[in-house]
Specification:
Length: 355
C-alpha cells in the first residue's frame, strides 16, 4: 500500500483497524509507539519483550485498554515469535541489544539477539503473512566500528534480502535509521542529568563531538510514517538537526543545576576521552550509499543495492526529490543553537527523568 506522500495520521489513516505487533515494547521507542498507536483507530496492539518486570508494570498501566496485549517473548526463539505474531498486520521490530560496551564484551549475545533474532522476526512474518515489517536500525550501522554497529548493519541487510523474496501477498520489509533519541534509556541526556544531580562532574568524550538528535516523540512518529511509506528493501533516514555535545552539556547544566541546589558555574565539565567504538561524528549514510540515496520531503531514502524485484519502485520519488552528493554526517550539518537545545529539552519534547 502506497501513501502517495500522505503522511497525516488524523481521521482515516493507514493504521485504521490494523493489528500491530511490536518487539521490544518495553524500550523507549516501544513505549512511545504504544502511546501514539492508542490514539489511532488500530484494532489491536500486541507488544512483546523479554523484560518480565517492565512488562508487568506496563501491563498494569494499560490494563484499561482492551486493545493492548503484552506478552513475554524471546526473539531468539522462533516458535515464540511465530505464535505471538499470529494475526498481525504490521510488525515493528524494535527489540535489540543497544549498548556498545556490553555488546563489545559479549559479541555472541549481540549476534544472537540483533542478527539471529531479526532473521527469526522475518521468518515469523513470512509464516504469518503479515503486510509490512519495519526494522528500527541505528546510526551505528553506518561504517560500523563496533560489534553493535556491525550487528545492526547485518540486520538491515537481512531486511533488504527478505524484500527481494517479496511476492504478491507477502510482507514489505524496510529499515529506518535513528539518530540519537534525546532522553532514551542509556542516552547522554539522563546520564548528564544524573551527573548534574550529584553536583558534577559532567563527563564529556570530546568538546568537538557532534551528533544528530531527535525527540522520542519524533522517533515514534518516524516509525508511524515510514511503515506505510516503505516500498521494500530501502533504508529511510529522517533529516534532523545536529548538535555539539559540549553545547548540550552546558545547556543542561544551566537548566538543571539550580533544581538540585547547585550554581551552574560550580558544576564542572571533565573531558574523559573516547570510549571503545565511539565515533567523533555521527553518520547516517556513507560514501558507498551516496549514489543510491536521494532526498524526498524531510527524508533520505537509501535504495536497496539488490534490485531483483521492483527496480523502478522509487522512480516517482526520485523525480519529486533530489540527488545527494555527499554522506549525511553531523560534522557538516549546521549545529543547533543553545536556545533550540533548551526547547528540545522541554518536558513536552524529551523524557529527562533520572531513574
Amino acid at each position: 500500500m502506497k501513501t502517495n506522500g500522505t503522511l497525516s495520521h488524523t481521521g482515516g489513516t493507514p493504521w485504521t483497524r490494523k493489528r500491530v505487533y511490536i518487539t521490544g515494547v518495553c524500550g523507549t521507542i516501544g513505549r512511545e509507539l504504544v502511546a501514539q498507536l492508542r490514539r489511532l483507530d488500530v484494532a489491536a496492539i500486541v507488544g512483546v519483550d523479554i523484560n518480565e518486570t517492565e512488562l508487568f508494570f506496563m501491563s498494569e498501566e494499560l490494563r484499561s485498554d482492551p486493545r493492548v496485549q503484552l506478552l513475554l517473548c524471546d526473539i531468539r526463539v522462533p516458535s515464540s515469535l511465530t505464535g505471538t505474531m499470529h494475526g498481525a498486520d504490521i510488525v515493528v521490530h524494535a527489540a535489540a541489544y543497544k549498548h556498545v560496551h556490553l555488546c563489545e564484551c559479549s559479541p555472541a549475545e549481540a549476534v544472537m539477539t540483533n542478527v539471529v533474532g531479526t532473521q527469526n522476526v522475518i521468518a515469523a512474518a513470512f509464516e504469518n503473512s503479515v503486510e509490512r515489517v519495519l526494522f528500527t536500525s541505528s546510526d551505528k550501522a553506518v561504517n560500523p566500528t563496533s560489534v553493535l554497529g556491525t550487528s545492526k548493519l547485518m540486520a538491515e541487510r537481512l531486511m533488504t534480502a527478505a524484500s527481494t523474496q517479496h511476492r504478491k501477498g507477502q510482507p514489505i520489509f524496510a529499515s529506518i535509521r535513528f539518530g540519537n533519541v534525546l532522553g532514551s534509556r542509556g542516552s547522554v541526556v539522563p546520564l548528564f542529568k544524573s551527573q548534574i544531580a550529584a553536583g558534577g562532574p559532567v563527563t564529556l568524550t570530546h568538546p568537538a563531538m557532534t551528533r544528530f538528535i531527535m525527540s522520542i516523540r519524533e522517533a515514534a512518529q518516524m516509525v508511524l510514517d515510514a511503515t506505510f511509506l516503505a516500498r521494500g528493501g530501502e533504508v529511510i533516514v529522517m533529516q534532523m538537526p545536529a548538535l555539539r555535545i559540549e553545547d548540550l552539556a552546558n545547556v543542561m547544566i544551566e537548566t538543571f543545576a539550580p533544581d538540585y541546589g547547585y550554581a551552574p558555574a560550580n558544576v564542572e565539565i571533565v573531558v574523559i576521552g573516547y570510549k571503545p567504538g565511539e565515533k567523533m561524528h555521527e553518520e547516517l549514510t556513507n560514501e558507498e550509499e551516496v549514489r543510491r540515496t536521494f532526498s524526498w520531503k524531510n527524508y533520505l531514502i537509501v535504495k536497496p543495492a539488490l534490485f531483483e524485484n521492483g527496480a523502478n519502485s522509487f522512480a516517482d520519488w526520485e523525480r519529486e526529490g533530489m540527488a545527494i552528493d555527499r554522506p549525511y554526517n553531523s560534522s557538516v550539518s549546521r549545529a543547533t543553537s543553545r536556545h533550540d537545545i533548551r526547547a528540545l529539552l522541554a518536558p513536552a519534547h524529551a523524557i529527562v527523568e533520572v531513574s
